[in-house]
């Protein structure tokens, strides 16, 4: 008989409606909580017939049944946070406010009123009932339209969002996160600003707008991510910051499912972590091929670096490289140390800049040699030229790469950096990167 090895983890409770399409509601909440290492429990308020195109029907459960579900959870589990979503009617909202008041767990209130498809999910006469629940919340997370209803204030700008957030805090909420997907972000169409408002301050969380309508379940997922992190004991500010970052990635790498725009990817962060081992192994295979070939010309001047991004990489820490780079010896190439993540920030920044235009590009090899620039010309590869500002921040270097690739006719085979005269070979697959880098090495040997 084997010994058990139990997995102890925090518990969170979601009180929300069910989405038969799987992208929002209870389904999104539980997937998101699990992705954050939290055991999700639930109390279903309503069964909806919906998918990525819209809501076809709604059936609200009896208040007594909802109450029984919540009681069953709190009597058995040590609930670390409560998240509320679709509550549908005033009696349900009143019930949930009572249950939140009776609990020591922080509550994240997502005042769901309308689905992303535009279908209404809250009775019009139930809007005023939210006041008591908001007063008992640790955080309330309305989008601009919901904040308008709750506060009676028009919202068009970030300044309007701050005023609405302050009004919600005056109602009794510890904090309000006014989501900016529908706001004019200071006249910048390419930016989204979410505003966290407390009694003491207002903090902006800004990120580029993603050009997609696949936002089904985004509100549920963000509020669930914050609740999960609160259940883990994180501060409100950290929980919101990580929740917003999680949501940005979940929207960019959304699920292409259904006949509608699609649904957010609740498991994207976990998928990124799961792909790290395979990505590191792919870099090692490229390195082994180059070392076995004796291609010392690749590192004859400034050295060689090989990097690979996981399929969902968004940060340099999610890009693997050879620690210390690859140097040249009389016999060929030699890796200074092993393959690790977060050890090649400059090369990772270049690769991430390319991935802003072509997310399928995952691998790159940078050769720091003016001779390599001439070799690329002889190979007749498609190329793009950029100039990284001297001493610039990573964001500026990434922007320069992004602009160069966006201006090119398709993703180039090689990037040429004007200031350092280096070459970065690009590829979607590691085997493709190895072949291209070996071709560059052969050309360097031929012209030596």
Automatic annotation (TrEMBL):
Start-end of Basic and acidic residues biased regions: 1-10
Signal peptide start-end: none
Pfam families attached to this UniProt entry: Phos_pyr_kin, ThiN
Key words of the record: ATP-binding, Kinase, Nucleotide-binding, Transferase
The keyword Repeat is annotated on this UniProt entry: no
Positions of the Pyridoxamine kinase/Phosphomethylpyrimidine kinase domain: 19-265
Biological processes per GO annotation: thiamine biosynthetic process
Domain Thiamine-phosphate synthase ThiN: 283-418
One GO cellular component term noted in the UniProt record for this chain: cytosol
CDD domains attached to this UniProt entry: HMPP_kinase
InterPro entries for this protein: Aldolase_II/adducin_N_sf, HMP/HMP-P_kinase_dom, PM/HMP-P_kinase-1, Ribokinase-like, ThiN
Region: Disordered, residue numbers: 1-21
Gene Ontology MF term list: ATP binding; hydroxymethylpyrimidine kinase activity; phosphomethylpyrimidine kinase activity
Gene3D superfamilies: 3.40.1190.20, Class II aldolase/adducin N-terminal domain
Protein name: Hydroxymethylpyrimidine/phosphomethylpyrimidine kinase
Organism of derivation: Natronoarchaeum philippinense
């Amino acid at each position: 008989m084997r010994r058990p090895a139990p997995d102890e983890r925090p518990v969170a409770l979601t009180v929300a409606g069910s989405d038969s399409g799987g992208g929002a509601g209870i389904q999104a909440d539980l997937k998101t909580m699990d992705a954050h290492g939290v055991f999700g429990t639930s109390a279903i308020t309503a069964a909806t017939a919906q998918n990525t195109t819209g809501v076809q029907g709604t059936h609200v459960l009896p208040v007594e049944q909802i109450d029984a579900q919540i009681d069953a959870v709190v009597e058995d589990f040590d609930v670390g946070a409560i998240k509320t979503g679709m509550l549908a009617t005033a009696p349900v909202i009143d019930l949930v406010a009572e249950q939140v008041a009776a609990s020591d767990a922080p509550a994240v209130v997502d005042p769901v009123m309308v689905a992303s498809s535009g279908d209404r999910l809250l009775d019009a006469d139930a809007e005023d009932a939210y006041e008591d629940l908001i007063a008992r919340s640790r955080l309330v997370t309305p989008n601009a339209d919901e904040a308008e209803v709750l506060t009676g204030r028009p919202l068009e700008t970030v300044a309007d969002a701050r005023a609405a957030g302050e009004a919600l805090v005056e109602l009794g909420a510890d904090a309000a996160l006014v989501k900016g997907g529908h706001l004019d972000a200071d006249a910048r169409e390419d930016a989204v600003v979410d505003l966290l408002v407390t009694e003491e301050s207002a903090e902006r969380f800004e990120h580029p707008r993603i050009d997609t309508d696949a936002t089904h379940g985004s509100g549920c997922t963000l509020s669930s991510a914050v609740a999960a992190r609160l259940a883990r004991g994180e501060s409100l500010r950290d929980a919101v910051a990580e929740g917003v970052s999680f949501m940005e990635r979940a929207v960019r790498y959304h699920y292409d499912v259904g006949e509608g725009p699609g649904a957010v990817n609740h498991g994207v962060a976990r998928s990124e972590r799961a792909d790290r081992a395979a990505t590191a192994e792919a870099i090692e295979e490229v390195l082994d091929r180059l070392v076995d070939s004796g291609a010392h010309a690749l590192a004859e001047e400034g050295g060689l670096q090989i990097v690979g991004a996981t399929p969902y990489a968004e940060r340099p820490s999610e890009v693997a490289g050879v620690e210390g780079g690859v140097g040249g010896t009389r016999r060929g190439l030699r890796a200074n140390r092993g393959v690790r993540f977060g050890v090649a920030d400059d090369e990772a920044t270049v690769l991430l800049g390319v991935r802003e235009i072509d997310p399928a590009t995952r691998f790159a090899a940078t050769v720091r040699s003016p001779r390599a620039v001439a070799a690329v010309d002889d190979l007749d590869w498609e190329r793009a030229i950029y100039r990284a500002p001297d001493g610039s921040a990573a964001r500026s270097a990434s922007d320069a790469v992004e602009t160069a690739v966006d201006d090119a006719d398709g993703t180039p085979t090689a990037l040429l950096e004007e200031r350092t005269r280096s070459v970065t070979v690009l590829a979607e697959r590691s085997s493709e990167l190895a072949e291209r880098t070996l071709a560059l090495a052969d050309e360097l040997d031929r012209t030596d």
